[in-house]
C-alpha cells in the first residue's frame, strides 16, 4: 500500500462559482468609484458655478437665490435655508431664500415677522443667534438640521441651514467642508454688496458736495469790486467742500455804472451759519438772497439786520441753526463806515495814525434767535492807510499742532506786523492765511470754515510845502 495520500482534484463547479463573484465585486467597486468620481465632479461644477455667479452677478438677489439650491445639492439633502443680515446686524427679511419654497413658505413668513431679528446688532449677538437656531429647529421638528455662519471680515453676515428627513439624514466631514465653502462665498458676496452700496452712497454725496461747492463758489464774489479810495482782498477756505461762511460786496445803488458806481455807497458783509456742510451752505444761500433785497432799501445797518432777522426767523427756527452777521456800508466820498453786528466776531481796525488796533463792535443778537431783536448802528471815519479786517471764527478757533487755538491775539499780532510793513490788502490777506497755515500744520485740515476780508484805505501822497 502506498503511504502517499491520495491526490485531490479541484471541483470544477466550485471554480466556476468563485469567478463570477470576484468579477461582481470588482464591478461593484468600479461602479462605486465611478459614482464617487461623478459626485465629486458634480460638486466641483456646483462650486465653480457659484464662484462664477459671485464674479459675474451685479444683483445680489440673483446670487442669493442660487445659494440654497447649491447648498442642498452639495450635501445631498432636499432642503436649505439662507438668512442674511443687514450691515447693522438686523435680519435681512427682503433677502430670505429657501428650497423647497412650498415647504418653507410658512417659515419664511414667520421669519419676516421675527421681532428679535429686527433689532440693530441682532446678528452680532451669540445669544440671539442661538434663539434663531432654536426658532428654525422648532419649525423643522421632523427634520435633521445643520447650520453654519456666513462670516466676512470677522463679522456675522447671516446663517445657512440644510435639512432633510431624520431617518435619511447622513452627515460627513466632506459635507461640512462643502457647506462651509458655500457659506464663505455667500459672506463675501454680501460683504462686497455692502461695500458697493457704501461706495455708491459716497459717490452720491461727493456729487452733491461738488454741486453744492460749485453753487457756493458762484454765490461768493469771484473778485473784489473797485471802490474809490480803498482796495479789497477776500478769501473763504471751507473746512468741507460746502461751507457756512459768507461774505459779499453789494452796491446800494446797482443801477449806477462806471465811476459813479465806484463812488457810490457799498455794503460789505460777512457772516457764518452755525454748522458745516450742505445744510449750512443752503441756509447761507437763502440769507444772501434776503440780504441783497434788503440792501436795496437803503436803510441803515441796524434796520437791515432787524428786518433780515424777522424775515429769516421761521426758516432758521425750523433748521435749529443761527447765523452771526456783521453788516457795514461805506461811503467813499466821506470815508464813513456805518456798521451793525449780529453777534459776529468784531472786525479789527488798524489805525495808521495811532499805530494800534481796535475792534469795531456793537450789541446785537444772533440772526434767528428771537423775532424781536434790536441792533445798534455804529460808525467810524476811516483815515488814509487804515486797514479793516473782517473774519469768521474759523480763523481764531483753528486748532494748532499742540492743541492750542489760533485765537484773536495771534491774529492781531500778525495783522499789526503786516500793517506796519505797509503791505497791500492782498499781501496782508496772504500773510494772514500763511500764518494760519503754519499754525494748523500742512498735514491737518481746518475744523471750520475760515474767511477773511481785508479793506485798506489808500495812502495819500503828502507833498512838502513850498516856502514863498
The CATH architecture of the largest domain can be named as 4-Layer Sandwich
If you consult CATH, what is the topology of the largest domain?
Phosphatase 2c, domain 1
Strand order of the largest sheet: 5-14-13-10-11
Shape: elongated
State the fourth-level CATH superfamily of the largest domain.
Answer: PPM-type phosphatase domain
Could you tell me the radius of gyration in angstroms? 40 Å
Q: Quaternary status of these chains?
A: single chain
Whole-number total of structural domains = 2
CATH class of the largest domain: Alpha Beta
Count of beta strands: 14
Question: What is the percent of helical residues?
Answer: 40-55%
Structural class assignment: alpha+beta
Summarize the helix and strand pattern as letters. Answer: HHEEHHEEHEEHEHHEEEEEEHHHE
> Major beta sheet, specifics?
5 strands, antiparallel
The share of residues in extended strands comes to: 15-25%
What count of helical segments does DSSP give? 11
Amino acid at each position: 500500500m502506498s503511504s502517499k495520500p491520495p491526490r485531490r482534484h479541484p471541483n470544477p463547479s466550485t471554480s466556476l462559482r468563485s469567478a463570477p463573484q470576484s468579477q461582481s465585486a470588482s464591478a461593484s467597486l468600479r461602479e462605486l468609484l465611478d459614482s464617487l468620481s461623478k459626485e465629486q465632479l458634480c460638486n466641483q461644477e456646483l462650486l465653480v458655478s457659484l464662484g462664477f455667479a459671485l464674479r459675474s452677478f451685479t444683483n445680489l438677489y440673483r446670487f442669493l437665490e442660487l445659494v440654497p439650491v447649491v447648498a442642498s445639492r452639495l450635501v445631498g439633502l432636499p432642503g436649505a435655508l439662507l438668512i442674511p443680515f443687514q450691515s447693522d446686524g438686523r435680519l435681512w427679511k427682503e433677502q430670505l431664500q429657501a428650497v423647497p419654497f412650498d415647504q418653507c413658505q410658512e417659515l419664511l413668513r414667520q421669519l419676516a415677522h421675527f421681532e428679535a431679528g429686527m433689532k440693530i446688532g441682532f446678528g452680532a449677538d451669540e445669544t440671539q443667534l442661538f434663539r434663531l437656531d432654536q426658532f428654525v429647529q422648532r419649525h423643522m421638528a421632523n427634520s435633521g438640521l445643520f447650520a453654519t455662519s456666513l462670516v466676512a471680515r470677522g463679522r456675522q453676515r447671516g446663517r445657512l441651514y440644510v435639512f432633510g428627513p431624520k431617518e435619511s439624514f447622513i452627515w460627513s466631514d466632506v459635507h461640512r467642508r462643502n457647506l462651509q465653502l458655500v457659506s464663505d462665498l455667500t459672506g463675501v458676496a454680501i460683504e462686497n454688496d455692502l461695500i458697493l452700496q457704501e461706495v455708491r452712497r459716497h459717490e452720491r454725496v461727493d456729487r452733491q458736495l461738488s454741486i453744492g461747492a460749485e453753487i457756493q463758489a458762484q454765490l461768493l464774489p469771484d473778485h473784489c469790486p473797485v471802490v474809490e479810495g480803498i482796495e479789497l482782498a477776500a478769501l473763504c477756505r471751507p473746512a468741507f467742500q460746502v461751507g457756512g461762511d459768507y461774505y459779499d460786496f453789494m452796491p446800494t445803488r446797482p443801477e449806477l455804472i462806471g465811476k459813479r458806481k465806484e463812488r457810490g455807497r457799498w455794503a460789505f458783509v460777512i457772516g457764518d451759519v452755525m454748522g458745516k456742510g450742505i445744510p449750512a451752505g443752503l441756509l447761507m444761500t437763502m440769507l444772501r438772497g434776503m440780504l441783497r433785497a434788503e440792501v436795496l432799501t437803503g436803510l441803515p445797518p441796524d434796520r437791515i439786520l432787524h428786518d433780515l432777522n424777522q424775515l429769516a426767523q421761521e426758516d432758521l427756527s425750523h433748521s435749529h441753526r443761527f447765523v452771526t452777521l456783521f453788516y457795514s456800508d461805506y461811503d467813499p466820498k466821506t470815508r464813513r463806515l456805518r456798521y451793525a453786528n449780529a453777534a459776529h466776531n468784531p472786525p479789527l481796525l488798524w489805525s495808521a495814525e495811532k499805530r494800534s488796533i481796535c475792534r469795531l463792535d456793537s450789541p446785537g443778537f444772533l440772526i434767528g434767535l428771537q423775532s424781536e431783536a434790536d441792533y445798534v448802528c455804529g460808525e467810524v471815519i476811516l483815515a488814509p492807510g487804515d486797514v479793516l479786517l473782517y473774519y469768521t471764527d474759523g480763523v481764531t478757533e483753528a486748532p494748532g499742532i499742540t492743541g492750542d487755538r489760533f485765537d484773536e491775539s495771534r491774529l492781531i499780532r500778525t495783522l499789526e506786523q503786516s500793517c506796519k510793513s505797509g503791505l497791500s490788502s492782498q499781501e496782508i490777506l496772504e500773510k494772514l492765511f500763511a500764518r494760519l497755515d503754519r499754525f494748523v500744520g500742512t498735514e491737518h485740515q481746518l475744523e471750520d470754515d475760515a474767511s477773511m476780508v481785508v479793506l485798506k484805505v489808500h495812502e495819500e501822497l503828502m507833498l512838502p510845502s513850498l516856502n514863498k
